[in-house]
Amino acid sequence: PRYLRVRRHMRYLGCSYGYLIFSDLEQCLLVDVYSGATVRPPGLKSNGNHEIYYGILVAPINSPNSHLFLCSTRSCMFQWQVGTSSWVEHPLDCGRILQIFLFKGEMFAMDFHDRLHRIRLAPQITMQEVPVVRGEDMVAGLKVKPWLVVCGDTLLLVELSVSRNAFFDYSATFKAFRLNLSVEPAKWVKVDNLENNALF
Questions:
Q1: In degrees rounded to 5, what are phi and psi of residue 41?
Q2: Phi then psi dihedrals of residue 138, to 5 deg
Q3: Angle made by CA atoms 14, 20, 23, in degrees to the nearest 5
Q4: Nearest Cα residue to 67 out of 23, 121, 115, 142
């Protein structure tokens, strides 16, 4: 596509609500995956010593409460309310954010150390760790970074566990765990059957 040839120096940050998100240190570009139409947020102020590595829209772009979040290696997060002329920078006191998602009307994030955080936008943005107990079946074998999936009213953590036998043959197993927030601290509970759901 033409926009990729023109902006091949831009990094792909993610996809949400039908938009691909690209950025370099100074510009951001949202591309509609169906029509190719673009949205250009205002320019980012950069001091050149950080990298934007993740981006997400937290509501459809035509929603009055749509925000775009960009995570930076400078331990900060940039927030743009769609339609406004500037970004707001928020310092982060947690590890590198790998994923931001909405669950039951609240915004959550998972950091590089697999810790779960609750994000509140008002009256100002704050991030608070949610204490979660990990089950015993979550610690065996080599791990690939887990991914969180909102599945209806359930939050799943999908984990790839890799093991090796005496002949150096590798085998991999996917495991899923649901978050039980009804107990304190919250707990990941193994899911043995996805019923009518499928994960891709």
A1: -65, 165
A2: -100, 0
A3: 70
A4: 121
Prior bond of 64 cis (ω within 30°): no
pLDDT digits (tens, 9 = 90+) for 66-124: 999 998 887 788 899 999 999 988 887 777 888 888 888 888 988 888 889 988 877 77
CA 57 – CA 14 distance, rounded (Å): 9
- pLDDT per residue as tens digits for the range 121-134: 777 778 888 899 87
Q: What is the pLDDT of residue 2?
A: 43
Q: Which of 122, 113, 137, 131 is nearest to 181 (CA)?
A: 131
How far apart CA 114 and CA 99 sit, in angstroms, is 10
Distance between CA atoms of residues 86 and 14, nearest Å: 21
* CA nearest to 116, candidates 134, 137, 132: 132
